[in-house]
Amino acid sequence: MDYFRLLVEIVGGLTAIWIFTKPVRKMVREQTKRIELMEEGIQSILHDRIYQACHFFISRGWVCISDLKNLEHLYEPYRQMGGNGTAKELYERVLDLEIREDVIKNEH
C-alpha cells in the first residue's frame, strides 16, 4: 500500500512541475522560433549579397584578391548554414574569373 501512495505522490509532483513550467516551455518555444527566423533572415541576406557581388564580378569579367576574400567571408557562413546551389554555382564562376591586382592596396 505504501508503494501505491508513493507512486501517487510522484505522479502528482510531476504533474505540478509540468503545469508550473508551462510558461517557461512556451517561452522557450517562442525563442526557438525567433532564432530560427533570424537564422533564415541572415541566410537570405547572405544569399542576396553573394548573388549581387557575383553578378557584378561576372559582368565585369575579373576579380581581385580583396574581392575574393570578401566574397569568401560571405559564402562560408552561408554554406555552413545549408545555403543552396545557386550561390555555390555563382561563387565557383567567380573563382574561375581572371584575377587582377587589387585596385586599392592595404597599407597594414
Topology overview:
Blueprint: H1 2-20, H2 22-60, E1 62-64, H3 65-80, H4 85-95, E2 98-100
Parallel strand pairs: 1-2
Organism: Eubacterium limosum
Protein name: Phage protein
Q: How many angstroms separate the termini?
A: 80 Å
Determine the strand fraction and express it as a percent band: 5-15%
Taking the sheet with the most strands, its summary is: 2 strands, parallel
Query: Helix share of residues?
Result: over 70%
Helix-strand pattern, N to C?
HHEHHE
Protein name: Phage protein
What's this model, at a glance?
This is Phage protein. With 108 residues, this protein is mainly alpha-helical. It has helices spanning 2-20, 22-60, 65-80, 85-95; strands at residues 62-64, 98-100.
Overview of the structural elements:
This protein has helices at 2-20, 22-60, 65-80, 85-95, and strands spanning 62-64, 98-100. The chain is mainly alpha-helical and 108 residues long. The chain has one domain (2-100). Helix 2 packs antiparallel against helix 3 (65-80), helix 2 (22-60) packs parallel to helix 4 (85-95) and helix 3 packs antiparallel against helix 4 (85-95). The longest helix is centred in the middle third of the chain and has 39 residues, at 22-60. The protein starts with a helix and ends in an 8-residue tail after the last strand. The mean pLDDT is 90.
